[in-house]
Amino acid sequence: MSLWLTQKSDVYSLGVVLLEVLCGRSPIETKVDKHKQFLVTWFRNCYHDGNVDQTVDPALKGTIDPKRLKKFLEIALSCLNDQGKQRPMMSDVVEGLEYALNLQQRYKKNKGEIGLTKIEDHHGDFNDKFGKVLSMSASSSTSMATTTCSEEEQALVHGMFPELRNQRPR
């Protein structure tokens, strides 16, 4: 551990923030069971045990398709790799988040009736980028519409995260 702030440490921090949003709690909770005190450790353990459902904020359940929620959780998990070199680049995380958001919006638009079609993004295969970090679910690779972010969707993402408009290093 170098204790230097790097682009990869920023990716880790974003992973923690994503977990905070998806799990509806802060990174450290002192008034819970000892095994749940540290959000990242608790989430990793639940994910690897197949119990990730118990980590999700109850307020999110029912508002987002479980398969799409899993994508967001997998992106967060990929950001939290202990080895900085194994974490995705921030641009890949942004692309992955846009991809997952697009899937969710398509799901909501079609009321969950996307059908069994192959979903591809125009920047390359999302699963290839994050597959090195963790084993992605096969749902997106078995599911056939070409997805692109509309200007409205891009505006939504950039409105929520204005820092993403300027992708120059800081």
Automatic annotation (TrEMBL):
Q: Which InterPro entries match?
A: ANXUR1/2-like (IPR045272), Kinase-like_dom_sf (IPR011009), Prot_kinase_dom (IPR000719)
What domain of life does the UniProt record list for this protein's source? Eukaryota
Q: Where is the Protein kinase domain?
A: 1-100
Q: Which GO terms describe its molecular function?
A: ATP binding; transmembrane receptor protein tyrosine kinase activity
- What is this protein's name? Protein kinase domain-containing protein
**Organism the protein comes from:** Glycine max
